[in-house]
Design a protein that fits this description.
The protein is mainly α and 194 residues long. The protein folds into 2 domains: 41 residues, Arc Repressor Mutant, subunit A (Orthogonal Bundle); 131 residues, Tetracycline Repressor, domain 2 (Orthogonal Bundle). Helices cover 71% and strands 0% of the residues. The protein is built from 10 helices and no strands. Helix 1 packs across helix 2 and helix 6 crosses helix 7. One of its GO terms (biological process) is regulation of DNA-templated transcription. Keywords: DNA-binding. GO terms for molecular function: DNA binding.
Length: 194
């Protein structure tokens, strides 16, 4: 029953947000009494905390499994990037989380830092393999990837650009791995300087 309550809470949060969903919504959805919900959870806040704990654990496990992917560093990077979209939270929920549920917000930031560190470890493998230039600042690249990947799963951005997630990921991969310059900027052939 505990798992069913958590799943229902996730659905109710998706509909109403973190603050507006109620225990009544969960009870009605599951066809049980509020008393039954309170048998498993002391409060709505406890339900939210467990929901986010599970979310964070899933994100972490997905990332750790991705690092075990067969192949080279690029295969591992692709697998880790795929984990970013597993249980994406809407910008509205993230804002609500940050403002009203600071503990859970801190957990989401901690998992984001964890993932960025793992991405940097994978990129370091690319440097060690001689496939990424040694002068690339991996911290900056990790930050760029983290923020870009999070933007990939914003349906408003995808709709505005008229792209699928896969098309967007291919474009990001191409830009990050191969760059944007047609010519060597030091050769004097690039006319549009920044």
């Amino acid at each position: 029953m505990r798992d069913r309550i958590i799943r229902s809470a996730g659905a109710q949060i998706g509909k109403f947000g973190l603050r507006r969903f109620t225990i009544d919504d969960i009870a009605s959805d599951l066809g049980i009494s509020k008393k039954t919900v309170y048998k498993y959870f002391e409060s709505k806040r406890q339900i939210i905390a467990e929901l986010f704990d599970r979310h964070i654990e899933n994100e972490k496990n997905c990332t750790l499994e991705a690092l075990k992917t067969d192949g080279g560093w690029l295969d591992k990077l692709r697998a880790v990037i795929h984990c970013y979209g597993q249980e994406k939270l809407s910008p509205g929920l993230l804002e609500e989380l940050q403002l009203y549920f600071p503990r859970e917000w801190e957990k989401t930031q901690a998992i984001r830092t964890f993932k960025r560190e793992k991405v940097i470890e994978v990129l370091m493998q690319g440097v060690e393999a001689g496939e990424i230039k040694k002068d690339v600042h991996l911290g900056i690249l990790g930050l760029i990837l983290d923020n870009t990947i999070n933007a990939l799963f914003d349906y408003k951005i995808l709709n505005r650009l008229d792209l699928t997630v896969n098309q967007m990921m291919d474009g990001v991969r191409s830009i990050i791995l191969y760059g944007i310059l047609k010519q060597n900027p030091n050769s004097g052939e690039c006319k549009n300087e920044i």
